[in-house]
Amino acid sequence: MTDAYLALEGERIVEARARAPGTANGELVFTTAYTGYEESLTDPSYEEQILTFSYPLIGNYGVREERFESDRVQPNAVVARELTDDVAEWLEGEGVPAVDHLDTRDIVTEIRDEGAMKCGIAAGPDATEADALEQLHQCKHMSEHTDIVAQVSVSEEIVYNEGGDGATVALVDCGAKGSIIDSLVERDAEVHVLPYDATEDDIESVDPDLLFISNGPGDPENFERAGEVVDTYVGEVPIAGICLGQQVVANALGGETEKMEFGHRGVNQPVRDLRTDQVVMTTQNHGYTVADPGDDLDVTQINVNDDTPEGLENDELGIITRQYHPEANPGPHDSLSFFDDVLELAEE
Amino acid sequence: MTDDERPTILLIGSGPIQIGQAAEFDYSGAQACRALQEEGARVVLVNSNPATIMTDPEMADKVYLEPINTEAIAEIIRKEQPDGVIAGLGGQTGLNVTAELAEEGVLDEHDVEVMGTPLDTIYATEDREKFRDRMHKVNEPVPQSVTIESMDEVEEAVESVGGLPVIMRTTYTLGGAGSGVIDDMDELKEATRKGLRLSRNNEVMITESIDGWVELEYEVMRDAADSTIIICNMENIDPMGIHTGESIVVTPSQVIPDKGHQEMRDAALKVIRELGIEGGCNIQFAWHDDGTPGGEYRVVEVNPRVSRSSALASKATGYPIARVTAKVAMGKRLHEIENEITGETTAAFEPAIDYIVTKVPRWPKDKFRDVEFELGPAMKSTGEAMAIGRTFPESMLKALRSSEYDPAVDWTEVDDATLESEYLERPTPDRTYAIFEAFGRGYSVEEIAGLTDIQEWYLERYQEVAEAADAAAEGDFYTAGQAGFTDQEITAIAGGEFNDTHRSWLPADVEVDDGDEGTEAAADGGAATESTIPDSVTVETVEAETTDRDFKLVDTCAGEFEATTPYYYSTRDPVSGIDRDELMVDRDVESVVVVGGGPIRIGQGVEFDYCSVHAVRALREMGIDAHVVNNNPETVSTDYDTSDGLFFEPITAEEVADVIEATNADGVMVQFGGQTSVDIGHPLEQEIERRGLDCEIMGTSVDAMDLAEDRDRFNRLMDDLGIAQAEGGSATSEEEALELAQEIGYPVLVRPSYVLGGRAMDVVYNDEDLKTYIEEAVRVSPDKPILVDDFLADAVELDVDAVADGENVLIGGVMEHVETAGVHSGDSACMIPPRSQEIKEVMPRIREVTEQIATALDTVGLLNVQLAVRDGTVYVLEANPRSSRTVPFISKSTGVPIAKIAAQVMAGVTLEELDIQEQIPDQVSIKEVVLPFDRLPGSDPRLGPEMKSTGEVMGTAGSFGKAYQKAQMAVGKPIPLAGTALVDLPVLGYEEHFETVDLDDFEDTDAVVEAIRNGEIDLVLSRNREILEACVEETVTYFSTIESGEAGLEAINSADEPLNVQAIGERPTDQREWGR
């Protein structure tokens, strides 16, 4: 039944069954969410990664486009204990290699103990161990993907809810999930999704009430352009950020980011608000984190498990950022009020 | 903290095991006791069920084995002056009595705070009208429904919820008693009439039927800072309309998209906040795919407390709901409570799991042949088994093996039309097996989905199992192993020999030699599959092809954090290259595997979990690592901190041997888990031998246990010892049976050889009865003989529990049955110490017989002997060198922990070294049983030789009468002290208290039934089945034997004596030896 191979760092070979053929490489990561595979697989933050589902049974309720977060499958390859035919066919159609029938808990605990690692994959009737190894050798570190933003950002401005009654938002697209835009639009905002390399002119022509730095894949250091935008408008326009957006804002304001051992990926990450003591469950998908928020930003929320910063704020400068994904999809809706809060900033 | 500073918390248990309320509250109560003590509380516990771990003296600061009613608890409150009471951990029983205590003003009077969930919330969830109002307030959709208080409103109500079919529900009842989906107006009216009477507040509700929707439950936890989380959700495979306790349930949900799941999660959080619940609770939803991305849902019900589902959720995820609930009630925040499983995270998170859990209910179908086991909104199952696997087929087949259920259906005699109408469309305990059978016959997923309303995702996987069985028959063993079959099952499917106990499902044409089972899955007519496999398929050939079992951790976090708690399940995940060993057990130290008792069922209750837990504790105290194999999610033995290694596995020889191999155990104990564990003794011994494992079956030998169950060998042994037995023998044909019966003289007791809890046992009075019995109840043949014994009418029956070490014998206690011969020992009330003069006179002989049998069986460990005394002669009825259901009762009434002593002895300590004194209690303790007739319409409520009770209570007092009265209170059937009594048994004395009537006062039985229905009769003494059935339906107290009638009269005469509640340990005993 073996017709697929994974080559892990250290040239270790793992045998599996091909469900969608092809070869690929990427950083091997895992998510612990058991629902929301359609949303996860279309989340641009998984660009250049190979996504392992720790939940063994994936694809149980089919594939429906209304549940997608972007217009394509984003990870370079997919690993699960058991993929349904529905999801396997979808991935094959998208040209994304997928494998199952392997002990994915071993993979997950290996990543936990050794960190997110390089991985090559070869799947299909002709796949060989050598193919997988070759892919492994071609695999780059996430930080080496310096152009990654170009792969996930829109190429030109798109406006949603034009003429909407609410705030005007300039969203710098670093690989934004559709639900972020939806959440803003649901609150009547007019959302201008701008390419990552939007100029000051482009932004000024939008004349935004709120500058929004989206989520995105990989190392925030590779998102210099978005950082410059923050630097330019801080204090003038309120700023919001999600996930990589938070990291970009922190870096731009004198903070520092660092790579995590294996990141946070799942829909059960507990976040405690330091002001209310309340804990909520959040969706997360990040491999880097803010190590030092710098002098301008206060840590207002932390991760209950490892104390990493989950919320940064500055009332005077009008900044609110979140490391997690308040827009959910997949995951809990506990912190949807974030969008109300940032739009309130925009109204001020 | 000094004792004065410690807050005193009263924890109310749930009482006896009954349908709808099994061992889960022993687990939650035991966990809560520990958590409360950790938080500095002084815990006072009350429960009437002696078979529980929570009522062990060391579990709480004070333990009261007293009735759970306002009278007894009010007295405990006066004595103990608690600061607070936690009601949400004792099931519906605990909630109800707390509500009553509040209503009667007892809580206010003594300044007792209701901790955790407020009473208002309880009312708001129990009263469906109030519940609907609260849901409307927060804009959550509930099924259309109307509450009515009289029969006149029925038709209008039906119209207002959209017409028939509707669901009729009573409020304030346990496990949905008296509820049902009804599509006929006359039937609805009859059900409503009964429902109005059963309901505590004379209301029933008529609800829109959302039958066929997916039923889900969400387990929610909230603290006082409003941190609110979902521990897990659970999806019923059986659609809406079948009580979740009757459904096969999986965790997490499989067919709900994230959007729908999150919408229900939001609703669950909103609802728990609206209701102000603090601690654990459970919310039920109905969901269906209406074409939108998230689907459509309704909020069905909220349980504002820890429940059976929360026990399941705790075991399924590793999140200890009862523990966290108790700590939240003490004011802790979720993020301040440590997650003991990982040691590095907290209780403020939502568990992530990387396996699928399947729960299968266990029904008492084998015990109630008269009862229709159609599944619906009311519970009929007594317990459940849970299994963990990495795929649904693996998880489900493990759960089916764990449930120890055999459908008594010969599929080869079921035609397609019957299969569809009786087994697929109609939900019964056999439906799972029928689905496999249907796939075997070539039915499609769509066809079966149409008949069953089960989601196709599940059916596709049932089909996969059926196909894997076909593949195994053709020689593809790997696939069958992946699908979850054991090597032994695969060997049987491939035509080889099956050398194990419990099976998941095997195709109808697979022949398995059972020996001890009364039912046969394999039929004579089925043509064997044309197979290319030679006859010589052995388990070795199968093993060579299948994947070895690998043990994986239940870690609450899907591998994200390293876990430190040794809680395991096995899987046959493919071996893919990196093989990580997750076993943390120490293979180099002395260790023992304790085999547990499996699901709760009649004849196999929580008492065997009590015994297993005691064995584990004894071993750990001796410095020996103790590992548990069990599959019952409700129990203390499957709590992750009970043992050094918890293996959540089916109890089969193969799977237990895998645990032995993985842990490198030196010994295995099969004496403590009741019949379940004893059954694997023989095959396990063979399996250990076959694999060449260095592991000993500890204590009494398997051969001695076999001898005790083998009638002929046992007879010879008793003859040799000169111990009297009821005259009898075994017959292999009808002619032989008739001959034997005539020789002994009627009435005779008849039963199949190898009995489980008195299955199919009966008393027959003449040739005709005997012929009918053979025809209807059993098939007699040379390899399935029946036993015919002298009935020993009028003898007094006794139970003795003892521990032997091969040298000496310690008698735990001698119990006299209240009911005489003819009533199964498990159903008879019994007392300790015995009171009849007849027994006192032969006590030395009782001791002698017990000692002789112990020695003759080379008993090392527990021994239960059932005796009968008539005319000064002591007869032995049965001897079982293993744990018995009276072990905890004995231990609680005498203070001598015999299960623990037995484990110590089995591990090599002598009784002499232990130097334990026998104790004879000064007061009288009565064990009384709980019978499930009210839950099983159509069942015969007369006590007989077949066991029917689900659980037990204990009542203790200075006099027999008072103790009996307390026991009846604890059972929930208080004896009325005045009124009208129908006395249809030869018992004199009721006329002094009651206006008595007898059958002559009525035209016919119907008239009696009518009078009972009209509430004209308060107490009944009768053996007339129809009359008793009416009593059951109308909840009129009755006695169905002369002896219980007499005992009842004594209770009435003792009614004026004080209740005299006392904590265990405070009751006086004599350090005397039994029979010396």
Automatic annotation (TrEMBL), chain A:
Keywords: Amino-acid biosynthesis, Arginine biosynthesis, ATP-binding, Glutamine amidotransferase, Ligase, Nucleotide-binding, Pyrimidine biosynthesis
Protein EC: 6.3.5.5
Keyword Amino-acid biosynthesis: yes
Catalysis performed (reactions): L-glutamine + H2O = L-glutamate + NH4(+); hydrogencarbonate + L-glutamine + 2 ATP + H2O = carbamoyl phosphate + L-glutamate + 2 ADP + phosphate + 2 H(+)
Binding-site residues for L-glutamine, renumbered to this chain: 45, 216, 218, 244, 247, 285, 287-288
Free-text function comment from the UniProt entry: Small subunit of the glutamine-dependent carbamoyl phosphate synthetase (CPSase). CPSase catalyzes the formation of carbamoyl phosphate from the ammonia moiety of glutamine, carbonate, and phosphate donated by ATP, constituting the first step of 2 biosynthetic pathways, one leading to arginine and/or urea and the other to pyrimidine nucleotides. The small subunit (glutamine amidotransferase) binds and cleaves glutamine to supply the large subunit with the substrate ammonia.
Protein name: Carbamoyl phosphate synthase small chain
Species annotation: Halapricum hydrolyticum
Classification lineage: Archaea, Methanobacteriati, Methanobacteriota, Stenosarchaea group, Halobacteria
From TrEMBL, chain B:
Keywords of this entry: Amino-acid biosynthesis, Arginine biosynthesis, ATP-binding, Ligase, Magnesium, Manganese, Metal-binding, Nucleotide-binding, Pyrimidine biosynthesis, Repeat
Manner of cofactor binding, per the entry note: Binds 4 Mg(2+) or Mn(2+) ions per subunit.
This protein's name: Carbamoyl phosphate synthase large chain
A GO cellular-component term linked to this record: cytoplasm
Co-factor(s): Mn(2+); Mg(2+)
Example of a GO MF term: carbamoyl-phosphate synthase (glutamine-hydrolyzing) activity
Region named Allosteric domain: 975-1076
Subunit structure: Composed of two chains; the small (or glutamine) chain promotes the hydrolysis of glutamine to ammonia, which is used by the large (or ammonia) chain to synthesize carbamoyl phosphate. Tetramer of heterodimers (alpha,beta)4.
GO biological process, alphabetically ordered: 'de novo' UMP biosynthetic process; glutamine metabolic process; L-arginine biosynthetic process
SMART domains tied to this protein: CPSase_L_D3
Region (Carboxyphosphate synthetic domain): 1-404
Residues engaged in binding Mg(2+) 2: 301, 303
General function of this protein: Large subunit of the glutamine-dependent carbamoyl phosphate synthetase (CPSase). CPSase catalyzes the formation of carbamoyl phosphate from the ammonia moiety of glutamine, carbonate, and phosphate donated by ATP, constituting the first step of 2 biosynthetic pathways, one leading to arginine and/or urea and the other to pyrimidine nucleotides.
Binding-site residues, Mn(2+) 1: 284, 301
Residues binding Mn(2+) 2, per UniProt: 301, 303
Pathway: Amino-acid biosynthesis; L-arginine biosynthesis; carbamoyl phosphate from bicarbonate: step 1/1; Pyrimidine metabolism; UMP biosynthesis via de novo pathway; (S)-dihydroorotate from bicarbonate: step 1/3
Residues bound to Mn(2+) 3: 866, 878
Binding site for ATP 2: 751, 790, 792, 797, 822-825, 866, 878
Binding site residues for Mn(2+) 4: 878, 880
InterPro entries: ATP-grasp, ATP_grasp_subdomain_1, CarbamoylP_synth_lsu_oligo_sf, CPAse_ATP-bd, CPSase_dom, CPSase_lsu, CPSase_lsu_oligo, CPSase_preATP-grasp
Keyword Nucleotide-binding on entry: yes
Domain of life per record: Archaea
Enzyme Commission no: 6.3.4.16, 6.3.5.5
Organism of this sequence: Halapricum hydrolyticum
Binding annotation for Mg(2+) 3: 866, 878
Domain ATP-grasp: 132-330, 715-907
